[in-house]
Amino acid sequence: MVGNLDRRGFLRASAGFAAGAAAGFTCVEVARAAPIEIPTVDRLSLRVLIDSAHDQFLKPSTVQGVVHQPPGSGRGSNYRKVLHNQWGLSLFVESQRADEARTILLDFGYSPDALLNNIEILKVDPTKVDALIVSHGHHDHYGGLTGFLDRYRSALRPDLKLYAGGEDNFCHRLSPSGVQGQFTDFGQLDRRDLTAQKVTTVLCEAPTVVAGHAFTTGQIKRTSIERILPNTFVERGIKDGLGCDASHYSAAELQGKIIPDEHVHEHATCFNVKDKGLVVISSCGHVGIVNSVLQARAVSGIDKVHAIVGGFHLGPAPKDYLTQVVAEVRKLEPDVVIPMHCSGLNFALEAQAQMPANVLVPTTGSRLTFGA
Fold first, then answer.
1. How far, CA to CA in Å, does 80 sit from each of 77, 114, 121, 124, 322?
2. For labeling, which of 22, 80, 112, 184 is most exposed (least CB within 10 Å)?
3. Cα angle 109-94-280, degrees, rounded to a multiple of 5
4. What fold is seen in the domain 7-370?
5. CB-based contact 124:270 (threshold 8 Å)
6. pTM exceeding the 0.70 threshold for the entire prediction
7. Edge-to-edge strands, sheet with 183-185
8. Residue 309 is inside which H or E element, if any?
């Protein structure tokens, strides 16, 4: 699938293939760099499999045409079980176009225990999944993936693909330890597990259509006032079969330094809902939620934003910066803003202050319906 990559992209992709082949990774494709045709869906449903909190007292609501159905107690039919919340995000995404249905599992939470527990309680059907998407290389977004595949791979389609934003998703991440210059391990996504499960990884530095209904933004340009707030550090290279293509080394890394994470291959997942506009799902938004939406607009040629959904990584934002970012979000004129995961209570409160009629806060187990 190298297809229409430009020369620079082809050389980078070739380096990635070479590094992958050397490490035993054979199930890799590279998305085409040619313009894509944006699909339109009639209806979109997001089931929040994992988020950071559960509120059993939330009431059903409709905000700007988006229907929110909370899960109630979250126990299902067995009072001994309950939905698990954890730092992370996982969305079970179902779309409909005429008689054609598609299902995508977007991100996988921090641990398989929570993901598998919530799949059972919420009674979603994982065997319907047509494609997998990982938003970026943080453990709280891919941690449940291997456990999910261990449980369900035999019941899933044989040609299952995982769409990742690019090679950077497989880099080794580290967290600051609190001591200057020292770090703690934050893991890395292991392609050997994917190869063993016969899952093909598609590297989507370029915008990519997924399952015929969704599209990804590709690498997100940084054009807004936003900046990456401090989070993890990254170490590139492949060691003992783990890691990412060393062709992305920076000058600092060539000197053996571990560098602040720039999330160069974080991507957003998008849908164009008929007569509504874009639904842009930013699972963590490290590169900026405004940047993500602007990229979705540029890729699709569609200006109307129906909904901005997901994690926006503004929990650690200082007040003045948060106020400025929310003002920029408001300028995008979305019908509804739906913060989850790392967006932060501070974001929800500021958004409600600036956009009181346009904010919907869901919970683990919520179902959100667009184009109902």
1. 9, 15, 11, 19, 40
2. 80
3. 70
4. Metallo-beta-lactamase; Chain A (3.60.15)
5. no
6. yes
7. 183-185, 172-176, 233-235, 259-260
8. strand 305-311
Q: Give CA–CA dist 281/224, Å, rounded.
A: 18
Tokens (6 digits) for 5: 């990559």
Tell me, letter by letter, the H, E, C secondary structure of 235-276.
Answer: ECEEECCEEECHHHCCHHHHCCCCEECCCCCCCCEEEEECCC
Measuring CA to CA, how many Å separate 326 from each of 71, 129, 238, 350? Answer: 28, 34, 39, 7
35/33 Cα distance (integer angstroms)? 7
Tell me the C-alpha distance between 112 and 133, whole Å: 16
Domain boundaries, the chain: 7-370
Nearest to 105 by CA among 116, 80, 253: 116
The tens digit of pLDDT for each residue in 325-370 reads 999 999 999 999 999 999 999 999 999 999 999 999 999 999 999 9
Radius of gyration, CA atoms only, the chain: 20
Q: Give me the amino acid identity at 306.
A: H
Do 135 and 153 form a contact (C-beta atoms < 8 A)?
Answer: no
For 159-214, how does the pLDDT look when each residue is reduced to its tens digit (9 = 90+)? 999 999 999 999 999 999 878 778 999 999 999 999 999 999 999 999 999 999 99
Q: What does the alpha-carbon distance between residue 342 and residue 268 come to, in Å, rounded to a whole number? A: 15
CA angle 371, 315, 113 (to 5 degrees): 70
d(Cα 346, Cα 328) in Å, to the nearest integer? 16
Structure tokens at 109: 């939470």
